[in-house]
Each structure stands twice: as C-alpha cells, then as structure tokens.
Amino acid sequence: MINNISFRKANANDLSVLYQLDRLSDENFHWKLSFFNYQDLIKIAIIANQIVGFVVYQTTDVVEIFRITTRHNFKNQGVATALIEALKQLNKSIILELREGNLKAFQLYQKLGFEQIYRREKYYSNGENAKIMQFSIVN
Question: What is the pTM assigned to this prediction?
Fold first, then answer.
C-alpha cells in the first residue's frame, strides 16, 4: 500500500491532466475531454504533488463510481484501493460497472468486498458484456 497519499476534489486546472492520464491508461475506451467538466464529481489522489489517480463518482442514496484510473507507473501499488477506501468513508453502499474482460479490476473489487449483482449482455459498443458490482454497507 502507498504511503503519503492525499486526496482532493479536482478543479478546472486539473482537467487536461486527468484527460491525458485517462487516455494513457485506456487507449481504446478513454473518455472524451468534455466528460471531465464535472470537477465536483472527481476525487484525485496525489503523491509528491503529482496526480497519480482519480475517481469520478456521484453520491445519492448510494455512491456510484463512473470511472477510476491510476497513472501507469503507479498501477498495482494501491492507488485504486486507496480511492475506493476513501469513498467507503462516505458510509454508503457503492455501485460500479466494469467490462467483463477487465479481470484485474474484477479481482480487485472482489478483494475490496464488492459482489457482482448483475450482468448486462452486449452493453458496450464492441459487444462486450458489463458486470455490475456493489459494495454493501453493513450496519
């Protein structure tokens, strides 16, 4: 796990960095720049004054994760785990969707206590299925 990680909400100055980080992380399925215009929905992870990851989410009765990305040279070092653990502090159930072929992410979410609750057939434009996963708060 990473030490000295901090979090903050994104601001307008971060958008181009977030877009580039997302694009480098997922060349085939990256988001458009305009999708990052909702800074109030983006929590970024920082180590040594460098953005090393981010999560785009919305909070209603649950937390819904729309996107989570880690800088390539920080992958497998606990950044995504730290971002999710930060969202767990909101004390709400968390829902997310991922590509069925993203086994590494699926295994991480399972390790963090998420369970698959649904499967959407041919959900993505390339025909790939989506898995819906949920972390439930136990009171």
Answer: 0.88
